[in-house]
UniProtKB/TrEMBL annotation:
Gene3D superfamilies per the UniProt record, alphabetical: 6.10.140.1340, Rhodanese-like domain
Protein name: Rhodanese-related sulfurtransferase
Keyword terms, alphabetized: Membrane, Transferase, Transmembrane, Transmembrane helix
Segments passing through the bilayer: 128-148, 154-175
Record keyword Ligase present: no
InterPro entries attached to this UniProt entry: GlpE_sulfurtransferase (IPR050229), Rhodanese-like_dom (IPR001763), Rhodanese-like_dom_sf (IPR036873), YgaP-like_TM (IPR021309)
Keyword Chaperone: no
Domain Rhodanese, chain residue ranges per copy: 16-109
Record-linked Pfam families: Rhodanese (PF00581), YgaP-like_TM (PF11127)
GO MF annotation terms: transferase activity
Amino acid sequence: MSSVQSISARELHGVDLKQALIVDVRTPMEYSEKRLASPTALAPVTELDPHDTALRSGALEDTPILVLCRSGARAKTAAAKFAESGFTDVRVIEGGIIACQEEGFATVGEGQPKTAASSPSLDRQVRFVAGALTLFFTLLGLLVHPAFFLGALFVGVGQVFSGITNWCGMALLLMRAPWNQKGASCGLGKACSIDANKGASKGAGKSPGASCQ
């Protein structure tokens, strides 16, 4: 994985965002719920095609690429893909959209819907699945055969690895689930348009480096 630089949300205030491309690599559901009011391109990390995203957004190989996710972990994977594809100025926004919001950057979206049709956050889904698998394998180990304890051990090791590396394979798998693809009308892996009338702040200019939000 190529090394990429990072930028804090505070330092982002000093960047001319009209000349940069902000790429949001979260799921469409997360993007729909809350996103930056500034122009961004949605390109979920699991389906990310750097050249396609750049082409659809009008970005060149030397256009500053600022990669964003919820807290920064998925953005590192996506930023590495951009760097490996030849883009020369790629940076991860530290702390993701949470840090941006704390630094005063305006956000728009549907908030955190509480309807029965809404899906829980990706973090919550990972915790639920990991806990359920651990319980499942433990019960099988007690009731069927001790070898099933290895399954619980595997899940536990995976969670420790995720905590150390800040990379979670289970989260990447869950991102592909149908319920996490709701909320955006674009194809995955492609920068998509979000209707500016859905609450984008007035005066939010359209970046030449990011032709869609």
